[in-house]
Write a structure and sequence with these properties.
Number of helices: 21
Distance between the termini: 66 Å
Number of strands: 12
CATH class of one domain: Mainly Alpha
CATH topology of one domain: ABC transporter transmembrane region fold
Low-confidence stretches: none
Strand order of the largest sheet: 6-9-10-3-11-12
Structural class: alpha/beta
Helix content: 55-70%
Length: 581
């Protein structure tokens, strides 16, 4: 895990060097203070040398001041390094997720990815920050203080050497159990985020069906589960402090009891005993801080594994070496589409049942092809293979006579406009959303695309027109308006291939007819694939494909299919649509 994450810390490794240098000087200052205190007790007080006592006291104050400056500088460096590391890691995670194919995204829920990019990265950030502040300082302080203590009195040091193994064993036992609990905490945080996200996205449905109480119960269940697991983890970690204090106090009492006898016997000065106790506190407090870092590492390990899991997920759809990456020479221009014996199953060749099998057809440039069929017949999956949102399991899909796998992904998708089944708008103005289709489009082009999608009229009805702010997901426009904006956005690309996946289902038939006429006006410049449930949406297409169970059941014009295809005729009859309108 460390090997995977180190590259994101590499450019901050100089902070590690500077922190170590600062902490070394800081530790020296802390180690000198107990020694100077012993000099006051053993030399200054017995000799009643006020000048000596004042000088030593001023030296101690000076060392404390220097330590404050060094500590503050180290805090600044550790904050900059940890924040920079977290920002770089978060950016790398986000960029990596952007390269995921649909099949990759099927394995990670949105809520889980949000938690990994926020909470899990924050845990690593805290670990780096505390590591630079404490992790390097604690072992250095522990070793040096132990050496100083052993130089004062070797016999008393044996008490410390007995206490340390007890602390090590206790800490390791707690850490081993804590890592599993912290992993469970992050997973339950995923579930909680998923519940919140689902509720906020569907808040209108919740209110419409008066299901607020149900949602409250669901949230309470996820929240309580997270709280219980977090409390178990917290209670386990909280055992660390009483264990440390028990051993610390026992060691201190043993040192005072044994050291008192040595002072009484004249074998040791009182100042040296005070100095030894000071070093004892430094040793045990250093180990205590060291142990707390290990507990923090247990939580960081749980978060780090989840982050590495995302980073290790390789995008299943990537550019083929030597693919057509020159957009000027190898872009999509004609819009010719060909399916050759295409088969597809989710999960690749090792997946389950075929979603599509033995699909073969050709769409000539400028033609309109409609795809119709029952729910689950594979319509959306079929058109998703053209821009390589998924890759075929068998067979081949070609665009302009070239296999889609031989195109550079960016070039291929730039030549395809797609209005997905689920209409998605982003926060920002209407203009911002439309410019997704073509960032350099001028005002006339925007209005032309909006007019073709029958969106111009309702856009201009808003006081701010194209500068109207859309809420997240377009919550302040209707379903039909959202669909028309998505169509306008796709048309603004002027793509050789346009795919409309049930994109007029929320639009009235009169408006839909106007959109169809606008598309037919320039259809020689654009190949159009339409997925629809209404016969009225597909009857004027040049060719209609009827899908059933992932296979082509029929292909032809509306009249041909009505006369010769049972499934198509049943759909027509159910919608009271015949050969003659």
């Amino acid at each position: 895990m460390i090997r995977k994450l180190y590259p994101y810390f590499q450019k901050y490794k100089n902070y590690l060097f500077f922190s170590f240098a600062l902490l070394t000087v800081d530790v020296v200052g802390d180690l000198l203070i107990p020694y100077l205190m012993s000099r006051i007790v053993d030399v200054g007080i017995p000799n009643r040398d006020v000048r000596y006592i004042v000088l030593i006291g001023l030296l101690m104050v000076g060392l404390a001041g220097i330590n404050i400056v060094l500590g503050t500088t180290n805090m600044k460096l550790s904050a900059e390094a940890s924040q920079g590391f977290a920002a770089d890691l978060r950016k790398a995670l986000f960029n990596h997720v952007q390269s995921f194919s649909f099949s990759n995204l099927d394995r990670f829920s949105p809520a889980s990815l949000v938690t990994r990019l926020t909470s899990d990265v924050t845990q690593l950030q805290m670990t780096v920050m505390m590591g630079l502040r404490v992790f390097m300082r604690s072992p250095l302080m522990l070793i040096c203080a132990l050496i100083f203590a052993m130089r004062i009195n070797l016999r008393l040091s044996l008490i410390v050497l007995v206490a340390l193994p007890l602390l090590v064993v206790g800490t390791l036992l707690i850490m081993r159990t804590a890592e599993k609990l912290f992993t469970s905490v992050q997973r339950k945080l995923d579930r909680l985020n998923g519940t919140i996200q689902e509720n906020l996205v569907a808040i209108r449905v919740v209110k419409a069906f008066v299901r607020a109480e149900h949602e409250k119960k669901k949230f309470r269940k996820a929240n309580d589960s997270l709280m219980e697991t977090a409390m178990r983890a917290g209670n386990l970690v909280s055992l660390t402090m009483p264990l440390m204090m028990l051993i610390l106090n026992a060691a201190t009492l043993a040192v005072i009891w044994r050291g008192g006898h040595l002072v009484y016997a004249g074998e040791m000065g009182a100042g040296k005993l005070i100095s030894f106790i000071g070093y004892l506190f430094l040793i045990l407090m250093s180990f205590m801080m060291f142990s707390m870092i290990f507990i923090l590492l247990a939580r960081a390990e749980a978060s780090g594994k989840r982050i590495v899991e995302v980073l290790d997920s390789r995008p299943e759809i990537t550019d083929k070496p030597g693919s057509r990456s020159d957009p000027l020479r190898h872009r999509v221009t004609e819009g010719r589409i060909e399916f050759r014996n295409v088969g597809f199953r989710y999960g690749g060749s090792d997946g389950g049942k075929d979603v599509l099998s033995d699909i073969s057809f050709t769409v000539e440039p400028g033609r309109v092809v409609a795809i119709i069929g029952g729910t689950g017949s594979g319509k959306t999956t079929l058109v998703s293979l053209i821009p390589r949102l998924y890759d075929v399991t068998s067979g081949q899909v070609l665009v302009d006579g070239v296999g889609v796998r031989d195109y550079d992904l960016k070039t291929l998708r730039s030549g395809i406009g797609m209005v997905l089944q689920k209409n998605v708008l982003f926060s920002g103005t209407i203009r911002d959303n439309l410019l997704w289709g073509s960032p350099s489009a001028g005002e006339d082009e925007i209005r032309e695309a909006a007019d073709a999608a029958q969106a111009q009229e309702f856009i201009e009805s808003f006081p701010e027109g194209y500068d109207t702010e859309l809420g997240e997901g377009g919550v302040n426009v209707s379903g039909g308006q959202k669909q028309r904006l998505c169509i306008a956005r796709a048309l603004l690309k002027h793509p050789p291939i346009l795919i409309l996946d049930d994109s007029t289902s929320a639009v009235d038939t009169a408006t839909e007819a106007k959109i169809r006429r606008a598309l037919q006006k320039d259809r020689r410049k654009m190949t159009v694939l339409i997925i629809a449930q209404r016969i009225s949406s597909v009857r004027d297409a040049d060719t209609i494909l009827v899908l059933d169970g992932g296979k082509i059941n029929g292909m032809g014009t509306h009249e041909e299919l009505y006369r010769g295809n049972k499934i198509y005729r049943e759909i027509c009859v159910s919608q009271q649509e015949g050969v003659v309108s």
